Amino acid sequence: MKKIQINKIRCILAVLLAIVTAVFLNGCGILLEDRTFALSLSVDYKEGEYLVWYGISDLYDEVSEKEESGEVNEKSETGSKGISMEEARNKFLASQENELDMGHLKALILGKGILENQIAYEGLLNHLEAQPAVASNVSVFFCNEIETLMKTERQQEIPLGVYLTKKPKNQSKKTVFPPVKLQELYRLWYNQKKQPSLPEIKILQEKIVVQNKPEK
To answer: For the chain, what percentages of helix, strand and coil (3-state, to nearest 5) are there?
Structure first.
């Protein structure tokens, strides 16, 4: 248990260090404690609406709490929906006191609905590409049970975005594979109107695992 707690602290401090460095270099006027950091973004599409979950981490508060009490509420998921990604995002922002920082997004999780609706899929890509803070090297995954994933994620030791990109601990030796990056989604869709095969997230025995997705 002590080893797990140490690993949790290390993960939080590592991400925090990267964020502090970026804020310093960018000379941004928004204080660290006034930011909400999205480490993962999950998106699906049902009945004409985008369903969006931000896997957020208030790292400034987490480290302060850890120093004071030895315990950390490491992550939270906030869901919103809208007929466009912009509407869903604005609804999320209206529920938050802090500024949303997408500059440290690590993982994008897509549901079956968004992948099967070409118009909605392109709308998502356009939305992400229009945000300079969203890096093109974000890792992308498929999950057919995102709502279950959100519930299971609360039981994990580290935030979902960090967990999914910490290879190969969340994979068996037989399922190690190269990640698919957001830039690959841009390239295939805008040039060929195609989608890449994505690593699939599954919930097995209340644990999050990643598997290869069969080629289309």
So the answer is: 45, 25, 35
